[in-house]
Design a protein that fits this description.
The structure holds two protein chains of two kinds. By secondary structure, chain A is an alpha/beta fold. Chain A is built from three helices and ten strands; from the N terminus they run βαββαβαββββββ. Chain A has a five-stranded parallel β-sheet. In chain A, helix 2 (73-85) packs parallel to helix 3 (99-111). The radius of gyration of chain A is 18 Å and the shape is elongated. The mean pLDDT of chain A is 90. By secondary structure, chain B is α/β, with parallel strands linked by helices. Chain B is 19% helix and 33% strand. Chain B has helices at 83-90, 125-136, 152-159, 176-180, 195-207, 248-254, 289-294, and strands spanning 6-18, 21-28, 41-48, 53-59, 70-75, 96-100, 103-104, 114-120, 141-146, 165-168, 187-192, 215-218, 229-233, 238-242, 272-277, 280-281, 297-299, 304-305, 309-312. In chain B, strands 1, 2, 3, 4, 5, 6 and 7 form a seven-stranded antiparallel β-sheet that branches. In chain B, strands 10-9-8-11-12 form a five-stranded parallel β-sheet, sandwiched between helices. In chain B, strands 14-13-19-15-17 form a five-stranded mixed β-sheet. Chain B starts with 5 loop residues before the first strand and ends with a strand. The chains are: A alpha/beta, B alpha/beta. The interface between A and B is medium-sized, with 17 and 21 residues.
Chain lengths: 191, 314
């Protein structure tokens, strides 16, 4: 039930600096990624990340000259959109984090005119899924189970492996549409 | 889609633009309309001289939605393989000609947020069909046309000269670095003109960190001559002499071989043919360096032989 054999799932590779770019910018939703060898090994890399709330006031700045901590993922994404509006050709953008974060970044970069040779993504951290209810369009965040009750309409959604890069979310469809009330038990699959 | 078959046409106008440039206009000769061409499209025109046939590729300079006429602009090349001389010296208007359906190997990147067009000399021609399209889309663009001082007026008569469109003679030219620096994300550059200019545009854009897919070049008319050689065809058992001013493709065609082709400038790869024996002199932009070193395919429209003969699987 978990491996649904859907071949359109994005595949991620480890990040490495694309030497054809002139300026390099990493955004990550996970402070833990800052100790990844990619960050330490990349000279001149600008790093944006989100500090954990517990560390507020005591967070050390990331270990690079050009680093910045944001209070929330949303704040970082908003700033990224503003920043890319004024950026110039030659930039390469890297993102590391949860899958929905990666594709939110990708969408922002694409709207700013960046193409697939200028954006590099790697999955880091939790496998929890953002699930889009195809019935009421609600996004259900951080879903870890194979079946989830929709926050919007209350339907029991089967979490398909079908990932939308545009919506940065997996597809959730009513699991008991044929036989109402016949809801299999959920498995914890995406931690 | 690539349309097959030729379009019957008639020459309906010949205008002199400069001492070496002429515009030729064609209209359909069957009462119908020409197919809609994409911006940047070219046609092959079949020219039948007294003892020789040329098939030359020229960019359409008419707006893409013009279906009652196609036009091309041709420079009377100094070192010509004959086609441009034939057009300039023998075509007066009224002649019947065969045109191929238009093909586009130089499209506008629809997702680009800004377009920079860099033309050199007669390499301006594909951009003449870009301009009406970019303007009608209200696209952000710049056209930079480089030419010799005595042709500035001729090119200005074709494109004008304003804040978006600049025509430079030999003085007061901006450098390519000035043109390509500080461009916003999502900018694409297109270049058509002499090999040296196109290479410099590509090199400069790469140095400024532009990704490969944002750099576009139109490679035309690269079919320079070379040493004559002999080609043997293993399937049809023919032996054909390729003359010094003739391309391999032209030699195949004049021997009655139905060889595939599309751009006739080493850019599209349609004409690639397997090589069985002999060492090709690769001059195309299609094969990778590794494939060129392997020498198992040859682009017949531009490439020649290093060895005195080649054996092809045709």
């Amino acid at each position: 039930m978990i491996d649904q054999g859907i071949k359109s799932r994005p595949v991620y590779e480890r990040l490495k600096i694309d030497p054809t770019g002139l300026r390099h910018h990493l955004v990550t939703d996970a402070a833990a990624f800052l100790s990844d060898p990619f960050v330490a090994g990349a000279e001149g890399l600008e790093v944006w990340s989100v500090g954990s709330r517990e560390a507020e006031g005591v967070t050390a700045r990331p270990m690079t000259e050009k680093g910045r901590n944001f209070r929330s993922v949303q704040q970082m994404l908003d700033r990224l959109a503003q920043r890319l509006e004024h950026e110039q050709m030659g930039l390469r953008l890297y993102a590391a984090g949860r899958e929905e974060f990666l594709w939110d970044v990708h969408g922002i970069a694409q709207r700013a005119g960046m193409g697939k040779r200028e954006i590099f993504l790697t999955h880091f951290g939790s496998q929890a899924r953002r699930v889009h209810c195809v019935h009421c369009q609600t996004f259900n965040e951080r879903v870890t189970t194979t079946i989830v009750r929709c926050d919007g309409c209350g339907a029991n959604l089967f979490v398909r492996d079908h990932f939308s890069r545009r919506l940065s979310a997996f597809m959730g469809v009513k699991v008991d549409a044929e036989v109402p009330g016949d809801v299999p038990s959920a498995e914890q699959a995406y931690l | 889609m690539i349309l097959q078959g030729n379009l019957p046409a008639r020459v309906v106008g010949v205008e002199r633009i400069s001492p070496t440039l002429k515009r030729f206009r064609f209209a359909p000769d069957n009462g119908r309309e020409f197919p809609t061409a994409a911006p940047g499209a070219h046609i092959l025109i079949t020219l039948k001289g007294r003892d020789r046939v040329w098939k030359n590729a020229y960019s359409l300079v008419t707006p893409p939605d013009h279906r009652d006429q196609y036009a091309i602009i041709v420079r009377r090349a100094q070192e010509s393989r004959g086609g441009s001389h034939f057009l300039h010296d023998n075509i007066q208007g009224g002649e019947k000609v065969e045109l191929s359906a238009p093909a586009s190997l130089f499209p506008i990147a629809s997702l680009a947020r800004k377009h920079i067009l860099i033309g050199g000399g007669i390499g301006l021609t594909p951009f003449l069909s870009y301009l009406p399209v970019l303007k009608s889309r209200s696209a952000t663009f710049e056209l930079h046309q480089f030419c010799s001082a005595d042709e500035v007026d001729a090119f200005r008569s074709l494109v004008g000269d304003d804040s978006q469109v600049r025509v430079y003679g030999s003085h007061a030219r901006p450098s390519l670095e000035e043109i390509l620096s500080f461009q916003p994300l999502g900018t694409h550059v297109y270049t058509c003109g002499p090999e040296g200019l196109m290479n410099a545009v590509t090199r400069t854009a790469r140095q400024l960190g532009w990704p490969e897919n944002s750099i576009h070049q139109e490679s035309f008319g690269a079919a320079a001559g070379g040493e004559p050689f002999i080609v043997r065809l293993s399937q049809s058992q023919k032996t054909i002499q390729v003359g010094g001013t003739q391309s391999l493709l032209e030699a195949l065609e004049s021997a009655g071989v139905d060889a595939p082709c599309l751009c006739r400038g080493g850019a599209c790869g349609v004409c690639l043919v397997p090589v069985i024996d002999g060492e090709p002199d690769h001059r195309d932009h299609v094969l990778s360096d590794a494939e060129k070193a392997e020498g198992r395919l040859i682009a017949t429209c531009v490439s020649r032989a290093k060895s005195g003969s080649l054996v092809l699987d045709l």
